[in-house]
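Batch 3, record 17
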Amino acid sequence: MTTQELDQMVAAQVKELAEHRLEEMVREQVKAALEAEGRKATRPKRVAIVASKGTLDTAYPPLILATTAAALDMEVGVFFTFFGLHILKKKALDHLKFVPVANPAMPMPMPNLLGALPGMTGLATLMMKQTIKHKHIASIPELMEIAQESGVKLWPCQMTMDMMDIKPADLIDGLEAPVGAATFLEFASHADITLYV
Amino acid sequence: MAIEYTIDQRLDCQGLNCPLPVIKTKKAIERMAIGQVLEMVSTDPGSKPDMAAWAKSTGHELLDVKEGPGVFTFYIRKAK
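Prediction for the assembled complex:
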């Protein structure tokens, strides 16, 4: 056998081996991708929501979306952080305020200076609560109750509790244990929908 | 048009706003047996697209929607 023939033979064998290995690798990748898709198809859709604000109007979107997602058979978790934690306070849940200052979308437009007058937040809150009642819109405590009944995970932010000196006893019952950003992010990393309010 | 299915359960959501009709429907369906039919009546115009989306997401069967003046009647068969 000449050197040239030997070279050709080796090259052919290497080519065959490489092709075989490539085929194997593609097969493994496709199998893994199909399995991942299968897992995705069988598990419920997941929604991860951050509630970061503590006024009456800003408490609605996270709670409406969370309760509705649960009704749509989705798995839901809400992380209450910074002023969002206010919503979970026993003393605040039914007493959230609607602040008219810096809100150009007020139903009755008013200058910021007027909105900043003493008593205006109370008045605007009262008016909004009357509208909510009159139009048969669920109240915040009602939505919270529905969220708990339907298995929505409600996480208080541990760091906010420390920062604002909020004790577990200050919060409503039926919550998850307080957690940090990592717990929420781990949950959200497997979410199909992630929202920040 | 005659209704060709028997109604097993009725739910009145008239006057209620989003998201209550959807949430109450989900609760009512949970208490029913597979194959049973729920009739839900609502006045919220948003419930028309929302009930279709709810059925699509949960897999329950939206058999029919009847529209009257300001009133929507939904017929849902529990599928699972």
